Amino acid sequence: MSAIEAYAELRRFGRPVLTTEDAATRLGASLSASSRLLARLAAAGLVVRLRRGLWSLEEDLDPLALGDYVAAPFPAYVSFQSALHLHGMVEQIPRVVYLASPGPTRRTPTSLATFSVHCISPRFFGGFATTGDPPIRVATPEKALMDTLYLSCAKSRLFARLPELELPAGFRVREARRWLGRIASPARRVMVERRLQTVLEEARGDAVRGLEQQRGRRPAGAAGRGARR
Fold it and tell me: Which of 26, 32, 111, 108 is nearest to 70 (CA)?
């Protein structure tokens, strides 16, 4: 089988991302022969080498679609600062793509992006929406926040300092609180609940201040302080 014939066969596989093992199975070839073939196709610009043993047949593949491949053999979804930014809850664009997974925590670079995979309890895994083809799983606004709060209490302290948050319209507080019951550790559940309450109180304060500014009023109490002077 020529390289062009092999490429056509891989395209018929119907998967935009594949491993060397996938290619070997599809082509009926050995791993070493499939690896050499894929390397030749990559040199010709027909496939993209994402990392060792992982390839893309699409030149403009969305990096967010790589979650399951990066966390394999465990499932994963986009969450934490990455999902918060996608939902417009934080302004700063993360330098890496953050993933939540029941698998081990690790950092994985690829040719498209660097992924930071963070382990959460299997009971706490979920709360995402799936869109696109290939499928992209992104945490809902509520779960992205709860995932971040969940790991803000971890020993790594990576998420200990929360960025400035803006809750989107339609944010479901009840849905966010529902995930508290999925936290097995009572101590951790209490800490996450306290941090959630702080976020909600700050959001309410921001909403009140924004409403006052829209109405052209000074903050409550300002007139009284001026009068006392």
Answer: 108
